[in-house]
Fold this protein.
Amino acid sequence: MSTMKEEILALVGNSKKQTLDRNAIAKKLNLSKAVELAEFDRAMDELEEDVELFRGKGNRYMTREQSGVAVGVLHVNRYGTGYLDREGLASIMITPARLNGAMDGDTVAARADESGRYNMYEAVNGSVLKILKRGKDFLVGTYIDTPYGPRFWPDDEKFRGFSISMQEPDGFTPLPGLKVKARIDTFGNPLELTWIKNIGFKDDPGVDLLTVLLDHGIDPEFPDAVMKQAEAIPQEVTEEQMEGRTDLTGELTITIDGDDSKDFDDAVAVEAVEDGWILKVSIADVSHYVTEGSPLDIEAAERGTSSYVIDKVVPMLPQLLSNGICSLNPHVIRLTNTCEMKVEKNGAVSDFKLYPSFIRSAERMTYRNVNKMLDGDKETLEQYAHIAKLIEDLRDCADAIRARRVAEGAIDFASDEADIRVDETGKPVYVGKAERGHGEMIIEDLMIAANVSVAKLMNRNGFPCIYRVHAEPSVKKLTNYAHMAYMLGQPFNVKNAVSPKEIQRYLKSKENTEEYNVLSAQMLRCMAKAVYDPHCLGHFGLAEGEYLHFTSPIRRYPDLIVHRMLRRYYFEEDFSHRKADEENVKKYAVSSSEREREADAAEYECEDMKKAEYMKDKVGMVFEGVITSVKNYGFYVTLPDTIEGIVRVDSLYDGYYRYDEGRMALINDRTKTMYRIGEKISVRVLSASKEARTIEFGVIRSGGGKIREKTEPANKGRKTRSRAARKAEQYGYELKRDTRGRKRSASGRKQNGRSKKR
């Protein structure tokens, strides 16, 4: 934003609203020259166009905040009603008639009605003022057979209420079951689309995952210009490139990653000394190869992150870099940036330094083998005898760091990640909990220590940078959590603010209770989503005042930017780009957060799809689970292997159940049967839909009392069905149902092929 715009917004924002018209603003800014007034008029027009300023009575201005306007991403449910979240206030609910052409995923400016403008607790009515950015400029869909021939049917059900006009290329033959990607040329009703490319037929191996990826803007293919640049980069480090860098090839250095990992962007070395350890975390210097403004850099910024779904990886950088010259492969020299830390016996990092370096990794270790060594497996210890002492020292150093972090209040949530394995056709053959052993924890702790150290250096020197920010949970969410905990018989006290240490102590005290998994999972849902920000605002979950992502530049664009800024401002002391960099880090923080959300959403959708597919041949089988959420329409049950399904209220055949929000339960007043959060329960699988990504359960028993068992899905056999359901049956497709939103926390590290972020 220009200085002129900033001055205008500051002036209007610090004045009583609707007191300054255009002339008064120019006068208070002491503008008199023709060139100044021309720039002023342009700035005012652009601020109004960007909904930063609003005119009130008498053409007097207000800022966005003064006018009660919120800007954010619009979420539209299956019924067409939109919701816009507001920081610290209740969401704005927008009926279809007041969306003004906005669609799900669009960035919009919306205003709440006057009566609920400052409501903090219940959703308030409002309307969209302006669409600032379209969430999608494309659609992915499937051709379905109709009485009028094959027609395009969007995979995203929120676009199915629109009439669609598809422009297809000459010679194109639409066939039922063919999936395609199409560009949106004209928004509205009808949506006017143009065919872009065929994806494949819906039942072909791999097409299901590819469809989800493309629907979230994640394309496995790189543009020609990007591949051309990648192919031109030599795959060996030259003597010239090593000049001016610290030679660490004499250090015993290793990488530790998952069995299936191909991109190794961090390596570790440690030396035990009398009063602690000298820890060296060396990270691939991707910024040396991905130069600013190059095709590789532009593409990496647009992707924002590598995406991991089931058995597929869509890298942020072409494999020539991510698996090649940028990857810290064993026994070859690679360029790195090293964070060297002095770790005291109590786990505190008392000093650190950063420098450009080059290393030669001695071993490509896996978490599995490290865990075997730490468990005393003789065969593995013999195989890696030359690094056995290093592994022990890494363990001792990391354990001390973790103990220190825990003492400071860092929260470790019991978050069960799924391990989903598929065969060569893509069919899921196993679903279970992903293992998290000592080896995984070692690397997590060492990477966090490096991230904190680099954040301190960048922040305290005032260098332009991108930080990883995690805000404290809202009082409203914690109050709701306290009520839930009380209903489970595990009281949690809430004041105006709760520290990470208080949350940590509470969860620690409940580890041996039956309710612990539910308590931990529900606390995790209270947490804000960690995002990227140009300002160092701290990380609540880690109990760190300064934090960023430095350790994974191969797969996260913010890490790449941190390395670029570190080199420019600290290693080279070049301050000539400061103004441009300060603007760029703002832009990249926003785009990287957006791309991370899309990658996470794709991962969750693919998991849900494969879990449902896995359960399709288990219809009729009985499983034990725990009720993890209760709604007015039913309750969700999670099985020990992380699979989750819904028991719909209309599948409970022993009478009428009412939803008691205060007790977080469904209650049958006649039979006194109650289903509440945290309760163990036996369920039978009624149905599983890969297309809808849903699993439906029926109750077998609750507590000790039997109830009438339902053996068919809730909607089967109804005489009255919705128009959409009748059309679905007529044309042979399945309707999606909303699934419960989920938040997951993670730790800045990829484990078992997945990206874990804190």
